[in-house]
Give the backbone structure.
Amino acid sequence: MKQVPATESKLTIVADGNDIDRSNLSFIVNPYDEFAVEEALQIKERLGAGEVTVLSMRQHESQKPEEALRTCLAMGADKAILLDGPAFHGGDSFTTATALTSAIQRLPFDLLLFGKQAVDDDGGTVGIQVAELLGIPHVAVVNKLEVHPVSRAVVAHRQVEDGIEVVEASFPVVITCQKGLNEPRYPSLPGIMKAKQKPLNTWTCEDIGIDPGRLGASGAKLKTLRVEPPPTRLTGRILDGDTSTAVKELVRILHEEEKLI
Amino acid sequence: MSENFNSLDVDVLFVGGGPASLAGALHLTKLVARSNERIAAGALRDRKLEPQIAIIEKGRDVGAHAISGALFDPRALEELMPDYAKQEFPFPVTATAHEVHYLTTEHAYQIPPWVIPPAYRSTGCYVGSLQKLNLWLAQQVEDAGVHLFNETCGTKVLYDNDYVCGVLTGEKGLDSDGGRKANYEPGTRIQAKITVFGEGPRGTLAEDVIHKFNLRKGKTPQSYALGVKEMIRVRNPGSPGLAIHTLGYPLGSRVFGGGFCYGIDDHLYAVGIVCGLDWDDPRMDPHAQLQQLKKHPLIQQFIAGGVVVAYGAKTLPEGGVFAIPRLYTDGALLIGDSAGFLNVPYLKGIHYAMKSGMVAAETIVDALHSGNVSASALSSYESRLEGTYVIRDLHHVRNFRRMFALGFYPGLALGGLTMWTGLGPTRPGRMREDFTYLQHHENAIAKQRTHEPAQYDAGVLADKLTDVFHSGTEHREDQPSHIRIVDPSRCLTDCIPRYGDAPCTYFCPAKVYELIGQGDDLHIRVNFSNCVHCKTCVIKDPIDVSEGDGVQNIIWRAPAEGGPRYQGL
């Protein structure tokens, strides 16, 4: 689960031009990761068994992933783990996947659920890379999921062009979650109270036995050269009058002022 | 309605996570700790207190719905946290120069500083963001063990035998018709021994309590102003610590109010305008007035070439000491702007709001010890407050605002005199509710002035919808509308003939109301998802559908989800 800037945030770029200014942002649980948490909770509720652990990593000092993890615990997750320490800062999707893989190898699991992508950098590869590093199958961009505990397998539905692809895979498996999979629940007030008592553990790179050199900027395969804002959109104009007058005026503007037609 | 609620029991519930509640809750934890220490030391014979204290806040985080100028007088904070400056306090800048200018269309005339009594000068106050102050206070409050519930909106006051005993929070996951979606979450009955309403101006639940227990008996109606504000980022070096207030242009003498321009940091200005809602002009548009102000040379010298990066709007209570309702009833107290402690000539209210919460906390500790939460036990809140600078200051300026009923210029002269002397009647005069100023004009069309069509550009002059975007406001498009027009036909039979237009499409600073269609299809469309929760519509709506019972045609209920996401306002 990744904590990302709130979707309505207005982003500005830092002075050296290779990152966004994170100092005044408010953060939320990545919306696609909410689908993953909700799906995990629903599977647990349907089966009446199992445990839901939420894993996150602090990639920037300004992030407050503890808050996002508490939100997941308030939704109903059983425990939360935060990978924290300067070694985890910076880096790219590969170092994130490397760190998560080392942590996941210390946990028992049958099913790993990820959001299909984080809405901040829209990379969309962390879940798939973790599957690769663990040597287990993955099904990406899933919008319906059946879990069969007896046969230890999942049947996952993916929206593809002109239809639905149905994929079967056996445990342990990585699923990345797409919109439409479910409607994430709201944390209830009693849920928020209970979440305060649930375990939220912090793991450093020593705890997960990984060399800090493989993480952060030194382990990254990608380097951000520059971040640029999208071009500013000019203010729109509303043309007065009935349809025929407005259309005539529109044609005139496109022809004479904008020289587009 | 579902009977299947969650439930939660606490001892003290603060409704609304603004400066009043945050300071109140924090002070309460300190008073409890102090009292427990004295009990442990044998200095006090009583049982130890371990109260569960909760704050509910409808914004997505504390501060998301908080907006102010803000010039902040740290007086109450100094009492609350004497070492606040060492705690990463979020206001790095103090006002180095406080200037008041009278504006004409082209010129600015600075009012000599000696005209303003020393106690009303803002030099030395902090310049900054209420949103950041609240967020910072919220951290202290949570660290002190208070339960803080964001995105939790009180929708109903719970009563038990005419005692206030908590609030019901809003149901989430409803569709536009009120049906339950897959992720429906019922509301929670939060039961509390003492419920403290700090919902801000014209709080929905606070007004319910005020109405039910007739707490405005013998008081004047509350009168309000609307403040609209933009944050403007400039490339050139800014002027941190600049604090300018303006009178005159663009409001002229017909609207009580004025503008402000504060230097927030090296490249950021806060520019805003505050307009008393007792205007009589049906086409008065505070957002357009702000754009006019920004075009004035005095303001242009600071913001030219800049871009708007944030926007917000909020009403503020200007009724003064005579409009403060009785502040207590069985099981409940009123604090902050829900009660109305704004000092109009000083242009400040945050520290009074905080102090009111802190004084409430003193009464609450006594009530928790005695177990008595009746109105008579809680009445000490009001008498305590009368002994503080909150009521003393407001009493001093009690006649300032009402002098403006004599006209703007006599008001300025006489109001200024009352600031120096504190003289004038000690009893309330006759005041009317703000909406009647539109309503009672027999010939309101004659009152209309011609307004220049507002001019916008892609830079520093922003149109209303662009500014709505800058407020970060969002409501799910498929959630039930929190704004309802009781009788839409009255818009056409009352407003259009009387004003030749729909005043709501002008006074709303977020373009919630739009007059669309033609002929038989003419109607008001309610774009509730634009709403920034300022409350202007329920204060200014001129149509009384109950014929004198105070029920207006626009009903605004706090939505269980959504609202602005203010950053740095």
In short: Chain A is about 30% helix and 20% strand. The CA atoms of residues 38 and 239 of chain A lie 46 Å apart. Residues 31-47 of chain A form the longest helix (17 residues). Chain A touches chain B through 24 residues (CB under 8 Å).
